[in-house]
Amino acid sequence: MKKLLVTVVAATLWSVAGVQAQTLSISCGAVGVELKLCQEGVDAWSAKTGVDVRVVSTPNSSTERLALYQQILAAEADDIDLFQVDVVWPGILANHFVDLAAHAKAAGDHFPALIRNNTIDGRLVALPWWTDAGVLYYRADLLEKHGAKPPATWQEMTETAREIVAAERAAGRDGLWGFVWQGKAYEGLTCNALEWLDSFGAGAIVSRDGDITVNNPKAAAALKLAASWVNEISPPGVLNYDEEASRGVFQSGKAVFMRNWPYAWALANSDDSAIRGKVGVVALPKGGAGGKHTGTLGGWNVAVSRYSKHPGLAIDLALYLTSQAEQKRRAIAASYNPTYPALYQDAEVLAANPFFGQLYETFSNAVARPSGVTGDDYNRVSAAFWTAVHSALSGQQPADTALADLERKLKRIGRRARW
Q1: What is the CA 1 to chain-centroid distance, rounded?
Q2: In whole numbers, what is the pLDDT of the chain averaged over residues?
Q3: Which range has the worst mean pLDDT, 64-68, 225-229, 271-275?
Q4: Rg (Cα) of the chain, in Å, rounded?
Q5: Residue 364's pLDDT band (boundaries 50, 70, 90)?
Q6: Between these two residues, 78 and 362, which has the higher pLDDT value?
Q7: Cα separation, 291 vs 199, whole angstroms
Q8: Does the structure show a pLDDT above 80 at 20?
Q9: d(CA 103, CA 129)
Q10: Is the CB of residue 111 less than 8 Å from the CB of residue 54?
Q11: Is 385 within 8 Å of 193 (Cβ atoms)?
């Protein structure tokens, strides 16, 4: 790991060496469509301003990318002017970024939850670029065939998945499962499990005031229900699935329901998809009576380094990349979710992404991971959470015991950190 980071740092420093005075550098999407969209936006701004912008290569792994950022910023290096930052990083990296609060009005009206998430100690340290929240994909053709409707609650989803799988397997489709999701012990499981908790009204692990709230009966009920899915409506291997593994199963036609991020819509309807034209998307189910539709807040932002030699130009580029016009382009081209509520009513955006209109409530009610309040300790908090959840899902511990142990671990972390 250390050797990899040193190599990447060296490559990064080399890639921006010898640049001229009016050159900026930005770290953004590492590969694929994400990198292409970033490069197109950067090129458009460069053509307008005459300022050259170099896109710096960074690791595809978000964990490795964060470690690289921390090394560069801790050295107060000016090698990168703008950073693409994950939604959970503002609390970790805030001290290294320019306060963009004075430019918030020029940036426009983003979803309030995103601005709150990116505001640390009164400083707006990043502008929202695109957002994400977990959603429920379903096989519209199978639900119609079996007279079912998109589920309103997790219990309804469980029962519908069980019934459809039983009927389809009886007809010879032995490889069909009911529900795939991200059960691997990593950040994706934190996102899934936080949605379960929030949908049951069980809190968000650590409150905005720093109180440990995760050990409660509603949280235990949510985990017990999720554990019941494994090897019944979800394959045993789901406990090692990430986003792409679960998408692969669903897109090959082997699952009725899938929890994933909105990016999977365009791929599910691509020319080579086995389920093209057969997919629906709705908000994630409620946790029953008193519950709510929710989704873990995801997405990426643009931050300007305090160590940039050209902060004015860097801010202008950040405003351009996060503007409504640029976000509309990205939404139409590749289904990237805008951070502006107004774009969810835009006719051209909705023509390209019909399901976007159904996501407004999800983004309005999205639950943020407790990264702002826990700051540098967020990674430890999240790792403790996903480890406890995984132990409950895999049957290593009862949900109640796992949550009690987790509470004790988080209290130790919190006491040392003085949240």
Answers
A1: 24
A2: 91
A3: 64-68
A4: 22
A5: confident
A6: 78
A7: 5
A8: no
A9: 14
A10: no
A11: yes
- Place 14 in a pLDDT band, splitting at 50, 70 and 90: very low
Q: What angle do CA 150, 155, 156 make, to 5 degrees?
A: 30
Asked if 126 contacts 371 with a C-beta cutoff of 8 angstroms, the reply is: no
pTM for this model (two decimals): 0.83
151 secondary structure, DSSP code: -
As to burial, measured by CB atoms within 10 angstroms (0-12 exposed, 13-18 middle, 19+ buried), residue 127 is: buried
- List, as one string, the DSSP characters of 228-271: HHBTTTB-GGGGG--HHHHHHHHHTT-EEEEEE-TTHHHHHTST
What value, to the nearest 5°, has the Cα angle with vertex 338 and ends 39 and 61? 55
* pLDDT tens-digit series, residues 237-288: 999 999 999 999 999 999 999 999 988 988 999 999 999 999 999 999 999 7
Give the ranges where 177-239 is alpha helix by DSSP (H). 187-199, 217-229
Joined tokens for residue 94: 């805030």
Helical pair 324-334 and 32-49, crossing angle rounded to 10 deg? 150
Report the alpha-carbon distance of residue 129 to residue 159 in Å, rounded. Answer: 38
What tokens were used for 302? 């643009």
When pLDDT is cut at 50, 70 and 90, the band that residue 419 belongs to is confident
Structure tokens at 11: 């490559």
Write down the residue that tokens 């792409």 correspond to. Answer: 244
CB atoms within 10 A of CB 17: 8
Q: Residue 2: phi, psi to the nearest 5?
A: -65, -40
Q: What is the distance between the alpha carbons of residues 399 and 403, in angstroms, rounded to a whole number?
A: 6
Q: Which residues pair with 255 in a beta bridge?
A: 177
Question: Assign residue 76 a region: left if phi > 0, alpha if psi is -120 to 50, beta otherwise?
Answer: left
Question: What tokens does 305 get?
Answer: 């380094």
Max Cα-Cα span within the chain: 69
Contact 111, 131 (CB under 8 A): yes
Distances (CA, A) of 404 to 199, 233, 410: 20, 27, 10
Structure-token pair, residue 369: 């991971």
